[in-house]
Amino acid sequence: MLTSGDVVDLELGTPQGREAGFRHPALLVTAQRILDAEPSVVHVVPLTSTIRPFGSEITIEPDDTNGIDVISAAQCQHIRAISPGRIIGGRGNVGTIVLTQVRESLAVLLDIP
Fold this sequence. Notes:
Blueprint: E1 6-11, E2 23-28, H1 32-35, E3 42-48, E4 57-60, E5 72-75, E6 80-82, E7 87-93, H2 95-109
Antiparallel strand pairs: 1-2, 1-7, 2-3, 3-5, 3-6, 4-5
């Protein structure tokens, strides 16, 4: 069962331009009530270990619950809709504080009050 805030590994295929590709970790940001309905598409934010000073990226420290090995950044500017079939494994969950920070960044990017 997928949970909002899960850190998952994806198989994204060959990237185009600067998008994430191949096997890649990502943060699942779809609302739990949607995930509970087993949707055909979910929303993820790719993670990167390259930390940049972008206001749209949220830094995530590794800990025992999130399954991240190194300091990573959630690249909110690269939100994607994917088939759940692209999820090839789970690592852990970032928790409500980090998930809220990511969702707030997404709201700014999408101009949602």
